[in-house]
């Protein structure tokens, strides 16, 4: 019940009082953090796998998880922490980093809390490595707003740190070259992304998954820690159903288009340059969902990238509500399309992770005991 009250309250406050809701928004994220940190071990999917890895890694048994996450677990184990305690601390720290990153973009915390709670919370509570990874990526992204060398360096460091928790973080390094492209060339950039995506899709369709996997493993060999190559050549190259591919293409294209359109409709002359910079970096980051489409052909596991890219669009929507008067009327129409995208996005990422995950949702929200 606490989950439902928090989501409804934050959504209403975020839409009606977008400039003065930090306290309620922070309380909303506090509720989500508490729920995520105190899950039921028996109803949460992946819990048993995480727990087994936590216990076995200190014994010298090779871990299937990334080096950074494994080392954190080993140190916590040596300090005498049980897995549930380690997971709770890990979750609270991830939410803290996430909230700090969000506050560097917008003061409309409530709408972000509500949208995050219905669109991303359940997946990221189940896959806590992804939660920490995207929190670090988003924090790094907040330093890219001014596009300075030091800002780029901080982003790269935090992104790589996130990739040590979950390797999908490496994909977000593509943000760096794209962020340097002036906004007036965005249409050309999107065409380039579409062409690159099309070429890669062609490689997969003509040469099969194995050829594409070989190209990826070769290009990423300098960051390989062993587990990455193993997953790419086994579970991460088993193919994806056509229906799932279509849903990902629809949601990824929608995410990128809505982010680009809303950002383009921001009136810089009326508003402020800093807000324009925030919108630009978030819009470019959201395009990672579009760029990741070829990976979906390999395995549904890669849906993590377009799923986590949604946080960038959520922040753009929060900024829109916060500064609605500084956007054109056309941008207001785009918000309608975002509201249509929300249920499609939720449905897509429910069916990808299957019945067991869906059945766990009432327990993750603490609606069932």
TrEMBL record:
Keywords: Membrane, Transmembrane, Transmembrane helix. It holds the Pfam family EpsG. The keyword Transmembrane helix applies. The keyword Amino-acid biosynthesis does not apply. The chain crosses the membrane at residues 21-39, 89-122, 134-157, 163-182, 189-222, 242-259, 279-299, 305-322, 334-354. This is EpsG family protein.
């Amino acid at each position: 019940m606490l989950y439902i009250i928090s989501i409804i309250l934050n959504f209403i406050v975020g839409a009606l009082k977008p400039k003065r809701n930090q306290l309620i928004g922070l309380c909303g994220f506090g509720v989500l953090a508490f729920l995520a940190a105190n899950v039921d071990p028996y109803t949460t999917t992946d819990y048993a796998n995480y727990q087994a890895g936590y216990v076995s890694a200190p014994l010298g048994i090779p871990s299937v998880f990334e080096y950074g996450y494994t080392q954190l677990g080993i140190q916590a184990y040596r300090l005498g922490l049980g897995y549930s305690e380690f997971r709770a601390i890990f979750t609270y720290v991830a939410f803290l980093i996430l909230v700090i990153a969000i506050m560097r973009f917008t003061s409309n915390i409530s709408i972000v809390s509500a949208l995050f709670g219905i669109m991303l919370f359940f997946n990221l509570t189940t896959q806590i490595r992804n939660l920490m990874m995207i929190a670090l990526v988003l924090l790094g992204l907040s330093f890219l707003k001014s596009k300075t060398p030091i800002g780029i360096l901080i982003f790269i460091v935090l992104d790589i740190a996130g990739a040590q928790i979950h390797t999908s973080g490496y994909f977000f390094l593509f943000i760096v070259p794209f962020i340097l492209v002036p906004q007036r060339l965005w249409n050309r950039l999107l065409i380039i992304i579409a062409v690159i995506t099309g070429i890669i899709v062609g490689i997969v369709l003509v040469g099969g998954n194995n050829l594409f996997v070989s190209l990826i493993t070769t290009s990423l060999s300098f960051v390989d820690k062993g587990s990455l190559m193993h997953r790419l050549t086994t579970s991460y190259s088993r193919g994806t159903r056509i229906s799932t591919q279509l849903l990902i293409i629809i949601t990824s294209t929608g995410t990128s288009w809505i982010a680009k359109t809303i950002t383009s409709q921001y009136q810089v002359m009326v508003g402020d340059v800093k807000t324009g910079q925030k919108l630009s970096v978030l819009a470019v980051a959201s395009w990672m969902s579009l760029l990741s489409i070829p990976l979906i052909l390999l395995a549904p596991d890669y849906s993590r990238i377009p799923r986590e890219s949604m946080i960038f669009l959520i922040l753009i929507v929060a900024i829109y509500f916060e500064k609605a008067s500084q956007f054109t009327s056309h941008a207001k129409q785009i918000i309608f399309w975002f509201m249509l995208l929300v249920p499609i996005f939720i449905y897509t990422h429910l069916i990808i992770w299957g019945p067991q995950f869906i059945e766990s949702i009432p327990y993750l929200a603490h609606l069932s005991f």
